[in-house]
Amino acid sequence: GIAVNDHFGPNNNDKNLSDRVRDSGKILVMAEHATLDAYTAAFTRGSLFAIQDAGAKKGNYPVITSISEDTTALTITLASDDATVQWIANGAPIAAGAILPMRAIPAGSLYVRAVVTNTAGSRVFTQAFKLRLRGDVDGNGILDAADTMVCAGVKSRLDVNPDHIAACQYR
Prior knowledge:
- The protein has 171 residues and is of the alpha+beta class.
- It has helices at 36-44, 145-155, 162-168; strands at residues 25-29, 48-52, 64-69, 73-78, 83-89, 92-96, 99-101, 111-118, 123-126, 129-130.
- The strands form 2 sheets. Strands 1, 2, 5, 6, 8, 9 and 10 form a 7-stranded antiparallel β-sheet that branches. Strands 3-4-7 form a 3-stranded antiparallel β-sheet, with no helix packed on it.
């Protein structure tokens, strides 16, 4: 997972520390209820954001209202339009903007994540989204003969299963 320093920030007791740094990090967990079980479930499914709260006014970080996906793109919806989104795969930036077309993800990438930055310099880091290799129909992380056979059926239009078509999409 991606995390930042805890709520107290680095050297929070240092009186010479800039307000932009003091209390600069937190993790926001998207639990459905205020219970230990809901908190654990949210952590397990990766429903958390790491936040670098860099502004002198704390709590002024970009708010992500939703993250959605379909067969063509990942989309981040923000509460305001004063933030930018940068998408990262394999440790490097790959695209900018709230919508990441699937075709923009480099072949062989195992994950993609986003960094959302507002004009105050505060950032929200999403957890990484695990990607399935194109053609890995059964999702076991290995491209093997069984996957190749299914994709051959899709390519020849004999297999019209929507999940198979999505897994076998050719760039």
